[in-house]
Amino acid sequence: MSAQLIRAAGGLVWREGPTGVEVALVHRPRYDDWSLPKGKLDRGEHPLAGACREVAEEAALRPVPGVRLPSVRYRVAGPGGSTDKVVDFWSMAAVDGAGFAPNDEVDQLRWVRLDQAPAALTDDDYLPVLAAFAALPRITATVLLVRHASAGRADAWQDADELRPLDESGVATAERLAALLPLFAPVRLLTATPLRCVQTIEPTARRLGLEPAPAPVFDEVGHDPLGAAARVRRLAERGGSSVVASQGGIIPATLDLLAHQDGVTVADASTPKGAVWVLSFADDRLAAADLLRP
């Protein structure tokens, strides 16, 4: 029997330095190496949540995640032999921190200019993570395009379809989203008209203390991907992070339109219920699109 895969997550944490973008490296005395902040996931922990937790624990920084970066896979030794370890990475803006204090796990935090970071890393396994980040344009906004969670079968609902609520599974998904979406530090919430869209982001709205604004352009009824894409771009132009709850009948067409206009490759724009497209923008141009499953 092969050993179980070890799952871990971390962040390429960046900030604006006096001479350009700097990234955070941590020194681990146990291995005497310089690495990106990362660590093993807790049982049942979402990789994004784990990545943010590890950055907070190892570097004493509050990160805001952005673009999904390449995962790193390598072999690690253990009592029963070697096994595979996969580390998922996100780019993360360093917003603030409680002040780094050396500890048994990490005894130094160092900010290194991006072009000097490859030479400062001990392990070459993480060079593709740095390279992917360096290839990105400066990200100025994030739009989180959320498909509503499960709402039962439409053919079993006797009332108006826009009044169909989330089912038990959908309610649980909405709560899981409320643990992930706030990590992006949203400053505005929008929702399509159907009740199931509103309910999908209600737990997130309560946690953030924000009131979702109605946005019928994201309704399936009327099916206006041109209008929806234009609204997404206007949100991006405002900067910061926005959450939009919408429907499966319009999200793929909207995403395909944005991706085609801006030359971004999206192999499959289909969106499972409760999933989130993390759309990263450089000004009003789409730079990356990553599917996040809660």
Description:
The strands form 2 sheets. Strands 1, 2, 3, 4, 5, 6 and 7 form a 7-stranded mixed beta sheet that branches. A 6-stranded mixed beta sheet has the order 10-9-11-8-12-13, with helices on both faces. It has 294 residues and is of the alpha/beta class. The protein has 7 helices and 13 strands. A hairpin with a 2-residue loop joins strand 1 (6-17) and strand 2. The protein is globular.
Q: Terminal Cα separation, in Å? A: 30 Å
Give the percentage of residues in beta strands: 35-45%
Major pleated sheet? 7 strands, mixed
Count of β-strands: 13
Low-confidence stretches: none
Broad structural category:
alpha/beta
Computed CA radius of gyration, to the nearest angstrom: 20 Å
- The tally of helices reads 7
Q: Give the overall form.
A: globular
- Provide the residue-averaged pLDDT: 95
Order of helices and strands: EEEEHEEEHHEHEHEHEHEE
* Fraction of residues in H or I helices: 25-40%
Label this structure with key terms.
294 residues, alpha/beta, seven-stranded mixed sheet, six-stranded mixed sheet, 36% strand
Topology:
Blueprint: E1 6-17, E2 20-28, E3 33-35, E4 38-40, H1 47-59, E5 61-78, E6 81-97, E7 108-113, H2 117-120, H3 127-134, E8 141-147, H4 168-180, E9 186-191, H5 195-208, E10 213-214, H6 225-237, E11 240-246, H7 251-262, E12 276-282, E13 285-292
Parallel strand pairs: 1-6, 8-11, 9-10, 9-11
Antiparallel strand pairs: 1-2, 1-4, 2-3, 2-7, 5-6, 8-12, 12-13
Helix pairs in contact: 4-5, 6-7
Summary?
By secondary structure, the protein is of the alpha/beta class. It contains 7 helices and 13 strands.
